[in-house]
Amino acid sequence: MNDSTASAKASILVVEDSRIQATILSNKLSAAGYEVRTAENGQLGLEMIQQQQPTLVISDIEMPKMTGYQLCSAVKSDPELRRIPFILLSTLSDAQDIIKGLHCGADNYVTKPYDPEFLISRVESLLETPVADDTEEQELNVTLGGTRYTVKAGRQQVLNLLVSTFENAVEKNNELVRTNEELTVAKEQLTHWNQELETLNQRLDAANMRMSSDLEAAAKVQQSLLPTADLDTSKVRFAWQYLPCDELAGDFLNFFALDEQHIAIYVVDVSGHGVASSLLSVTIGRMLTGQASKSSLLVEANDGESEQRIVPPAEVAAELSRRFPMEEQNGLYFTMVYGVLDLKTLEFRFVSAGHDPPVHVQGSHAPQLIEGSGMPIGWFEEAEYDEQIIQLQPGDRLYLYSDGVPEAMDDDLTQFSMNQMLEVLELGHVGPLADSVELLSNTVQRWCNKNGPQDDVTILGLEIVE
């Protein structure tokens, strides 16, 4: 199917609770010429299907409120909707997955993790093969693993599922063959490596000693990315907490004056941990400076003029995405909230690049998440970003943070969650700003208990002085 045909005939609904996976798949399908809508859970997906029928549905299985199996069953049991082709994204862990798919009426399976091009080929194949009419269907009773299933499916539907299962099995077998070949080579190399192990261990001891010294030096460099002093202004106060989970972190934050009227504020979270992430964070931090220079992305010197130009946040994010493509950074990318606070108007103009949403607290009102829609820096070199504005008032507070806060895990691997974070911020609003930031930091550390946070925890709060 060419792009023009796909665009004219096919609209696809992607039902996926992972925002990042839904975005990536939507971009791939859109690039292939399809019209794409997304739903974050099965219940919302069903409502969207009933309101406007898509040409085809792609759904994850494990989702809140309604699973992919339940959504597929609801669609296939509705006479008005049952002929819509339905693809389930599954792990295909055992044979029951196939039977469950037939049981709920699915037309095809694609295994996670999947190659987007393979998924698009399955979409094209289904669109070229109409779903069977009622007269073609047969009802069969199947018992598998002690569970009895009633399967009602047409020949073409069963064939589609079997073909997709076979294709998945072939791909997994090819992966196994490649792995076995790599293991054979590795086994041959292991003999040689063992002979060198003693020498390498001696070198390793010496390298560890040098590395410890280097880590200490690198950690000091990273500290330079953090705020060094309070700003000389009576209109806004700041408070922050920074808890790296390792010697070197991927998070950093800062705030500083761009001129007498504007303050730059940001939190950056580089993916991963360790030396590579920390080096990237240092490189980025050196560019996010308020001093006009060739390397600074935040301010530009105007030739022949005394005043410098403050670069809008959207331009800053777009330029960072061009300079740091993920393919050239060993797969590393980063999220960011960067904004400029105008001390005269009290407007906070900012851009969110794949980062968790800022929290706005107005007086006695409940804390509010300010959602953004930008992609993480490095995913797409030509990414464009939209700016948002928060109009602050005296007494308002704004909190920026890294995902190490809501995603902190306890001993049972239960996440701290956005809701608990908002509850702590609401509780801390009655006291000073610094106390509220410290309360959130301490609460996250207690939640993680003896193991401590497994990700960097960064919190930056600001308050407009009344």
Summarize the structure.
The chain has 466 residues and is of the alpha+beta class.
Keywords:
five-stranded parallel β-sheet, alpha+beta, 466 residues, Phosphatase 2c, domain 1, Rossmann fold
Provide an overview of this structure:
There is one protein chain. With 466 residues, the protein is α+β, with helices and mostly antiparallel strands. It has two domains: 3-174, Rossmann fold (3-Layer(aba) Sandwich), CATH 3.40.50.2300; 227-464, Phosphatase 2c, domain 1 (4-Layer Sandwich). The protein is built from eleven helices and 19 strands. It has helices spanning 3-9, 19-31, 42-51, 68-76, 95-104, 116-128, 155-223, 275-287, 313-323, 418-428, 433-448, and strands spanning 11-15, 35-39, 56-60, 86-90, 108-111, 137-144, 147-154, 236-243, 251-257, 262-270, 299-301, 308-310, 334-342, 347-353, 359-361, 368-369, 388-391, 397-401, 457-464. The chain starts with a helix and ends with a strand.
Write the layout of secondary structure elements.
Elements (H helix, E strand, L loop, with lengths): L2 H7 L1 E5 L3 H13 L3 E5 L2 H10 L4 E5 L7 H9 L9 E5 L4 H10 L3 E4 L4 H13 L8 E8 L2 E8 H69 L12 E8 L7 E7 L4 E9 L4 H13 L11 E3 L6 E3 L2 H11 L10 E9 L4 E7 L5 E3 L6 E2 L18 E4 L5 E5 L16 H11 L4 H16 L8 E8 L2
Parallel strand pairs: 1-2, 1-3, 3-4, 4-5
Antiparallel strand pairs: 6-7, 8-19, 9-10, 10-13, 11-12, 13-14, 14-17, 15-16, 15-18, 18-19
Helix pairs in contact: 3-4, 4-5, 7-8, 10-11
